[in-house]
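Page header: ASSEMBLY MODEL / two components / 237 residues total.
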Amino acid sequence: GDSVTQMEGPVTLSEEAFLTINCTYTATGYPSLFWYVQYPGEGLQLLLKATKADDKGSNKGFEATYRKETTSFHLEKGSVQVSDSAVYFCALLSDGRGIGSTLGRLYFGRGTQLTVWP
Amino acid sequence: EAGVAQSPRYKIIEKRQSVAFWCNPISGHATLYWYQQILGQGPKLLIQFQNNGVVDDSQLPKDRFSAERLKGVDSTLKIQPAKLEDSAVYLCASALIGTSGILNTGELFFGEGSRLTVL
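Prediction written out in full:
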């Protein structure tokens, strides 16, 4: 079935450092890929998305490119800020084409805790 | 625009007791999800509704969990009887359009969650 594997954290960086959080996926169809973020005390919210291969999603300085050849969707930011401290979740939205998969089902990775120090 | 509303925000019960969580999705959203998020893990889908019909409940422990969305709007998730391992945050999410088109917009809107502690 469809699944997402996300690098384990926690990740601790100094302000203005470069960030990469790795995410790889397994899917038999053509899923859409997402990064969701959960700030302390808040609900999950969409950070960025890519709906097909080679698409690049971007938002708030974060970027991720949908790489079908490596089945990856790594999250990057060139210069992190203290306000980026949060838990980041990679997610896959199934197109239902694979055996055992369901159209519209969202699969999450385990989450990566990011802490940025000033 | 009002977001996804969930209640209660926090609930503490003893094992073998029952509990119910309520979710009101964003107005007009056809698809509704319940997720379970155990501390340190990613959210796990429990059940997915399309209007008032169940699309996927393969991960719902049906011996103790039940969910309904009778009028295709708000939804209730019930646990009876609760076990210690049910301690988690229960997240409700909704999406604007039906599952046939969801891949194009992709965005799910999440509530703040209901935190359950089972003692």
